[in-house]
Specification:
- This protein is mainly alpha-helical.
- About 65% of the residues lie in helices and about 5% in strands.
- A three-stranded antiparallel beta sheet has the order 2-1-3.
- The radius of gyration is 37 Å and the shape is elongated.
Length: about 210
């Protein structure tokens, strides 16, 4: 599958609209049973779950003279937005919308990196340089989860779809033995001359 087919937004939006229209007919229980076989979907769901968990544990810290304060994702400027997008990624992954899950995760990844630089610096500046600041374990949970969802996107469109497009190997058919044609027997020159003589004699007798 080439990039033009993958990033055909008209077709992708159509798939998303179709999902919402037929959401009542979606086989929720069947999806639970088959998701184990859907490697990209499973990776995306695991990544989104990691992001969800990471939101509730410390993402940032600020310290003054050894006394540290920890902040989870919701206390950061764009934390609530990242969490809402995380819920969206969970739903998209479950409903087999790996394309949109991957794009949403890439957006989250960009916001997370910018926030990881800007937020600790802002805390330090606000304190007049007195605070030590940095990221904590929750930040890495969220970041790794985002990378996992982006990885699921790559798996779905560049590994598994590529294999699906490759024609299946056909069963080998035993070749039928080739019958060699016998070479045509050439008539010797003498035989031809003899046949011509016999024909002439027959003509003479007939006269």
């Amino acid at each position: 599958m080439n990039f033009k087919e993958i990033f055909n937004f008209k077709a992708r939006i159509g798939e998303l609209i179709s999902l919402f229209k037929n959401i009542a007919k979606f086989d929720f229980l069947g999806r639970l049973k088959t998701i184990v076989k859907d490697i990209p979907g499973l990776v995306a769901l695991a990544g989104a779950t990691l992001m969800f968990i990471g939101a509730f544990i410390p993402n940032y810290w600020a310290g003054f003279w050894g006394i540290n304060t920890y902040m989870n994702l919701f206390q950061a400027p764009w934390g609530v937005l990242i969490f809402i997008l995380t819920l969206g990624i969970l739903g998209l992954s479950y409903f087999k919308q790996i394309f949109w899950a991957g794009l949403t995760s890439a957006l989250c990844f960009t916001i997370t990196l910018i926030q990881a630089i800007a937020y600790p610096v802002a805390l330090k500046v606000e304190s007049g340089g007195w605070l030590d600041t940095g990221v904590h374990v929750g930040f890495f949970f969220v970041l790794l989860g985002e990378l996992a969802v982006v990885g699921a996107f790559a798996l779905n469109y560049f590994v598994f779809n590529k294999k699906a497009e490759t024609p299946a190997v056909e069963a080998e058919v035993a070749e039928a033995p080739v019958v060699e044609e016998a070479p045509a027997v050439e008539t010797p020159v003498e035989a031809v001359a003899e046949e011509a003589t016999v024909a002439e004699e027959a003509t003479t007798e007939a006269e």
